[in-house]
Specification:
Elements lengths: L12 E8 L5 E6 L5 E7 L2 E8 L8 H14 L5 E3 L5 E2 L2 H10 L1 H11 L2 E10 L4 H8 L1 H11 L7 H30 L5 E5 L6 E10 L3 H12 L6 E9 L12
Antiparallel strand pairs: 1-4, 1-5, 1-6, 2-3, 3-4, 7-9, 7-10, 8-9
Helix pairs in contact: 4-5, 5-6
Length: 255
């Protein structure tokens, strides 16, 4: 059975999941957003993985995000993919083929770069009840400033609160950088590339995105466990993946 590669109506579009180096048309054994069939549209040496979409905008609802993620996970079973950001809807088949043709060289270059690789995530947090008090206890300069501004149980004024807050932020970010470098050095031998993501909250030490070989997951997990021994019990490690290499792909598409 050949995939239907024309949208049902002139108002329909094509929801885009990824670009792959596999060529030719194909239907995948996975359901996309709204339960639609997922299929491949080829153009030369590259192809787009899409599903029919009756809407021009897809809201980031849990079911839609889960479907997008499930499709990418399925594609990773037997191919290298360049994952699209959530929510991209093309006008139709001609638009998809035109996009593939105009960006062919960039797609091929990036497919070669991430070929046979996956992304693993590693998040480290401070596992402490109060992050400010933890830093006061472990950083003498911050403790001295706190005592100077809040000594004798007096209430500091607004400028003093700002000063103390700025010192805390500076100390926090310096400590993050120290710990991130220590962790990256411990993992660099099992990773092709490592990128940092911005911390999502105050207690997050580092959020690393690591590109490894598809068959190196066990080696990476062992390296993370060994690296964790460099940290005391005030740190918690959370590893996730494998994922498509989102953070190592730059989709600067020519219109």
């Amino acid at each position: 059975m050949k995939p239907r590669i024309e949208p049902a109506t002139s108002q329909s579009g094509l929801y885009m999941y990824a670009v792959t180096g596999q060529t030719g048309d194909r239907i995948y054994d996975v359901k996309g957003i709204d339960g639609c069939a997922v299929y491949r549209i080829g153009e030369g040496p590259v192809a787009a993985v899409v599903s029919d979409c009756a809407r021009q905008r897809i809201r980031p609802e849990r079911a839609h995000l889960a479907a997008h993620k499930d499709v990418l996970k399925h594609l990773m079973l037997d191919s290298t993919v360049l994952p699209m950001s959530f929510g991209i809807v093309a006008d139709g088949v001609k638009s998809v083929r035109r996009m593939l043709s105009r960006n062919e060289k960039d797609f091929l270059r990036q497919l070669e770069r991430v070929g046979g690789k996956v992304e693993m995530g590693l998040r480290v947090t401070w596992d402490v009840p109060n992050i400010f008090e933890y830093f006061v206890d472990t950083h003498p300069d911050l403790r001295l400033s706190r005592d100077r501004l809040m000594g004798n149980n007096r209430e500091p004024n607004q400028d003093e609160k700002i000063e103390l807050g700025q010192l805390f932020d500076q100390t926090l970010n310096e400590e993050r950088d120290i710990q991130a470098q220590k962790l990256e050095e411990a993992l660099e031998e099992v990773c092709f590339e490592i990128k940092r993501s911005k911390p999502r909250d105050m207690k997050e030490v580092v959020n690393l995105n690591c590109m490894i070989g598809r068959d190196q997951q066990k080696e990476f997990e062992d390296a993370v466990l060994e690296a964790a021994n460099l940290f005391d019990n005030n740190y918690a490690f959370d590893m996730n993946g494998p994922w498509a290499p989102h953070n190592f792909v730059e989709m600067n598409l020519k219109p």
